[in-house]
Design a protein that fits this description.
The structure holds two protein chains of two kinds. By secondary structure, chain A is an alpha+beta fold. Chain A has one helix and twelve strands. Helix content of chain A is 16%, strand content 49%. The radius of gyration of chain A is 23 Å and the shape is elongated. Chain B is built from one helix and twelve strands; from the N terminus they run αββββββββββββ. The chains are: A alpha+beta, B mainly beta.
Chain lengths: 158, 167
Amino acid sequence: MRRATLLRSALLAVGWLALLAPAATAQPGPKLDISITPVTTTFPLSDPDTVPIVTAAPVQITYRIRQNDGPWTLTVLANGDLLAGPSNVDISKVTWVATPAPPFQNGVLSKTVAQRLASGTGNVNPARQGQVTFRLANSWDYTAGLYTQTIVFTLTAP
Amino acid sequence: MSFAASTILTCSLLVAALAIAVPADAQTATSTFSANLGGIAKLSLSSNTLSFPDADPDTVPLVPAAGGAITIIAKARASLAATVTLTVVAADDLRSGVDTIPASALTWMASGAGFVNGTVSRTAPQVVASWTGSGIRTGTQSYRFQNSWSYRTGTYSVSLLYTLVSP
């Protein structure tokens, strides 16, 4: 008797899930698109005295948000510090200047917490573009090397 | 509440939780950073000339340079655990026409971390300072000239070449 009740309850729950699935299809979530160019950002060799802040070529971000009636956020997160073999440069030495503001904002890169790069509400359609210029604080204290790291841009519409 | 009713309620809550926990829509793009922080070195001296005034060899056997010590600022970006070295070498002996005084008549006293005392040579670069790794080092060199009655009179000069190596 008890087993039968449990089975009946489980079937009922599965049935509800089945009912929810078509409902989700009927109300599709936001459609998001993002692309960046160039995909490689290069900081050239510079004298820290004459170039205390090394500026890379601007990164063009193209984004489009459809079927969205809520807020959206574009964040950026580094996968780690700048690395050259065993040597590292803290990723917080990299800052950015972004336009247009709003929706874009300036910031400092982090390897632990995604940093907001842009935000807004509703749709962005047709696609729009923003420009992000990354800057590296130069220093004589860095160990010589060719440093690399990847960063991830994430566009979300909760 | 019966067992069946409570089970159904539990299942309902579970379904509701599943519906709420649906992840937000997200799109990502990845970029690669490349930073060329290659080895570079930069050296500056507080003065590009040294002069030693005429003096009685008996009372001033070591003539200090007029103007005092030279301040040296050495900046280097070096490889990991690499030794950065600052050397000095004379282009020739001290010369006044055909008369010469050995470059080794010039000695210096140093101050600053990594800086060492030394004697000028015209054949082999002499270490002025050395240290490990990148950074900025500041030190001083107080030059002195070995005075002697045996020198021929004249105004002697020589060029000193400083070299900062950052491997």
